[in-house]
């Protein structure tokens, strides 16, 4: 099923931000079947629990991709499936979201801890702040943040906190090195959540993958510039022999 792509969304904002990208991809290639799979709504915060649920739900032998947290989960699932995954693409996804000494190109741990505490205290206010961070760097950041928020699904605070814990726990370096299929990693040049330096850091971990940096776009570039992102993905699929 190399003509099928499953996209996983990011934290807290649901599938809607990926819909324009899915539509743009279908417009470029009507033969490509694109599906958006919502993230698990699990209160357990073990990445393995989330991956088990996704692995059970998603069809085999498809391309896996995702935005931000969704891309990190797609990377882990691709490594788990190996030859049963056609290829991987990540969109504004860091290899680690929270910085540590061996991976400084990420959010400072103190910043993440404060963000998580804010979510525990007031989940809706934190989600609004998150949408603003996702849109920071866009031409119309406030308009983009409103788009993100208006379509966000109602999630329980415990589910949102579990998602943050999964985000903090994931480290996809080993998964990306283990997965031998084609990989595309797209980064946003004005991303306020994933530093542009993460792109160069990825190449130091794994040099033989396709990598792209789209300048002057926000973390939410999947919604801000869906046609540009779709064109990059389509070019990658074509090069990988999936035309």
Stated plainly, the CATH topology is called Rossmann fold
In angstroms, what is the radius of gyration? 16 Å
Approximate helicity band: 40-55%
| Beta strand count | 6
Along the chain, the helix and strand elements come as EHEHEHEHHHHHEHEHH
Mean pLDDT: 96
Give a structural overview:
- By secondary structure, the chain is an alpha/beta fold.
- The chain has a single domain (4-239), classed as 3-Layer(aba) Sandwich (Rossmann fold).
- It is built from 11 helices and 6 strands.
- It has helices at residues 19-28, 47-57, 69-81, 109-121, 123-135, 141-150, 157-169, 173-178, 197-205, 221-224, 226-239, and strands spanning 4-8, 33-36, 62-67, 85-91, 183-188, 210-214.
- The protein has a 6-stranded parallel β-sheet with strand order 2-1-3-4-5-6, sandwiched between helices.
- Helix 9 (197-205) links the parallel strand 5 and strand 6.
- Helix 1 (19-28) packs across helix 11 (226-239), helix 4 packs antiparallel against helix 7 and helix 5 (123-135) packs across helix 6.
- The longest helix is centred in the last third of the chain and has 14 residues, at 226-239.
- The chain is globular and about 50 Å long.
- The two termini are 12 Å apart.
Summarize the entry for a quick read.
It contains 11 helices and 6 strands.
